[in-house]
Amino acid sequence: MGAPRFDGPGFRTLNGLLPRRALLRGGLLLASAPAALAQGPGEAGEDLPPWMRSPGAGFSVYGQPGPQAQRVLRRPGANRAAPGNGVAWTPLEQLEGFLTPSGLHFERHHNGVPAIDPAVHTLRIDGAVRRPLDWRLADLLRYPQRSHLGFIECGGNSNAGWNEEPIQRPVGSFHGLISTSEWTGVPLRLLLDEAGVDAQATPWVIAEGADAFAMQASLPLAKLRADGLLALWQNGEPIRPEQGYPMRLILPGWEGVTQVKWLRRLTLSAEPLMARNETSKYTELQPDGRARQFTWAIGVKSLLTTPSHGQRLDARGTYQLSGLAWSGAGRIRKVEVSADGGRRWAEAALDGPVLPRCTTRFRAAWRWDGQPAVLQSRATDETGAVQPSRAALLAARGRNGYFHYHAIVSWGVDEEGAVRHVYV
Amino acid sequence: MGAPRFDGPGFRTLNGLLPRRALLRGGLLLASAPAALAQGPGEAGEDLPPWMRSPGAGFSVYGQPGPQAQRVLRRPGANRAAPGNGVAWTPLEQLEGFLTPSGLHFERHHNGVPAIDPAVHTLRIDGAVRRPLDWRLADLLRYPQRSHLGFIECGGNSNAGWNEEPIQRPVGSFHGLISTSEWTGVPLRLLLDEAGVDAQATPWVIAEGADAFAMQASLPLAKLRADGLLALWQNGEPIRPEQGYPMRLILPGWEGVTQVKWLRRLTLSAEPLMARNETSKYTELQPDGRARQFTWAIGVKSLLTTPSHGQRLDARGTYQLSGLAWSGAGRIRKVEVSADGGRRWAEAALDGPVLPRCTTRFRAAWRWDGQPAVLQSRATDETGAVQPSRAALLAARGRNGYFHYHAIVSWGVDEEGAVRHVYV
């Protein structure tokens, strides 16, 4: 069948990592010769598959994924004592590209998904405002709209990275609390200005959701006015119930807990609320025992989704490395990959569009020689921030952490081609 | 409640169209004062809605839109004599942003949706090649991947525009055979090169689908090699059955009939096939009775989705015009809007990202004074091509047309605020 072209002369290799121009320069020749050839459908010599022999299924009003056996699913992990408190993970290792289908967008709820009547629900802006105001969904449709195509990541995503031993789970069940959508809605600045706010006297906004937990978050007014959205649509259609229908607060690049679903109230305040989910949780316990509060912007981060934990390389040869990179500070500038646990790095190709505060798919080619290897990726964002090694993150943050883990992720490949999560 | 801020001094208006900087400068004050104020959930004076009084629904493995009454749906229109032959329209007037959820991506089938076993299905490249080859889905996963975020539009979309009288239908049931997704898969160039093609001797590729119609299209090899993809994923997950699972040909910017679903074969040929769907259909019958064949690239086009046919303006005041623009030749450079049937134009704001061969959402503010108006949009792409008026399109193409209609769309607003499709 001939050797894969990537193995040909003229390509310098770096511990098996192939130069970027090699990525799309040649194929792999993993095809086989047909058993029989025919000129067209139904002609002699061709055995048509059964699905070409009779008409297929009809049209549908709302499309669904294929049969169960082919379906890619979220993985719920709820608290048994409180079934509406938990998460459902996005199966990152089964996805490609940079978008997440709405049906696979991760879930994080504190007391389940409320069934809201959009004719009754209102958004109220109150507290220290010139005039408190209520808006219904129908009112909001008359306002200017704007879109943000970007990620939402839970501040607790990847928290198993703090464990003493590397957790042995698929990447989606370890890092899958990140998803990417187009969110469209009303710039919050317009609504805040109508209510009349005093940014000097009341720099805080307490956001509250209409779920049974009455989820609350204390947020700086400046962020809401800068790029906050009252989102009404996700990926073009009305937001799904589990993502905040009929309206959700979107704060580009900030951790998920701030992007309050089922938003019902924004209360202007001189002080933060010190609510449960901004004190006992989503904070960073430092080595000295004090907690750092209000770490809102997501740090620069990346990980390989293919190959990743639980997958197996079935033979020596060329493999495509594929992963996601993102930063709450802006665009991804570059992603580097390593096959030797971070000693040597090669630059990956970024698959466009590269958008601010959005996931970016990166790719690189790697030739596995059958020896043990450790695959890693390291992202740099447009501010120059570089994703830290796990050792550097632990040195800076200590051993009490639980939230905001964004260190380099390592996948070990053994001589059998098995891939598992390792620390290096 | 105070007047809408857009009406204040300092804004020059152009037949009610407000300057672009006005778009996000002020609000509309469509809110109302709350009936009662309370400090927090459950405190005296606040009547909590029922969905905050008990835990909500649990987690799900695959998310769905909300209850039926809130759901936005495709509108199938199949041939009664051949139920698998027809279309399902994307309800554009109910969507915002520029993406289409996979469940609402338009459908166009010739003999229904085949139920394909991905373990059996192969893509074959044959005909005038050095060596015919077959690839299974599992083989293809090892190849380099690439994404294209862009639109697919049926060459028959908007064909009611050729009618003598303006059709009275919602915009989605008139122009809704366009949808936008991220498609990810293998660059076709890699597979064609492995089979070994001679671009001089055999400049044509006959693509064939694995549906019961065995849908065929004759395509230039140069386009497949330039940017053709063998797509395996749509919006991150495996392609939906009705969109071509397990693999679909993607040709950025070209009409939908060329982007063969359920792709099973690419046959290299010296000549086009002259198949039914490239001779009797998807061609342009000229004024002199001859047909123009192979008009693949989608022309520059735009339309307003809000307001649009069937909607009603309920009072004088400021409205947000919102629509979509696209071109098969590249990026949208600008979109202009008119409120007087095309005599005067003002530039709309483009809501990013503005990507090549992708839909772009545009927006403008307009103050309705209660008088009759005719709302239009006109797109210009990066090649300088300008969307034609209906009169110009008819003058150039005659009265025999059925495909590739891309003229300016006009929505008439009467004194009652009713919006309907008109010709001007």
TrEMBL record, chains A, B:
GO biological process, one term: sulfur compound metabolic process
Enzyme Commission (EC) number: 1.8.2.1
Residues spanning the signal sequence: 1-38
GO MF assignments: heme binding; molybdenum ion binding; molybdopterin cofactor binding; sulfite dehydrogenase activity; sulfite oxidase activity
All residue ranges annotated as the Oxidoreductase molybdopterin-binding domain in the record: 110-272
Domain Moybdenum cofactor oxidoreductase dimerisation per the UniProt entry, residue ranges: 294-402
Superkingdom to which the source organism belongs: Bacteria
Cofactor(s) needed by this chain: Mo-molybdopterin
Keyword DNA repair recorded: no
UniProt keywords, alphabetically: Metal-binding, Molybdenum, Oxidoreductase, Signal
Pfam families to which the protein is assigned, alphabetical: Mo-co_dimer, Oxidored_molyb
Entry protein name: Sulfite dehydrogenase
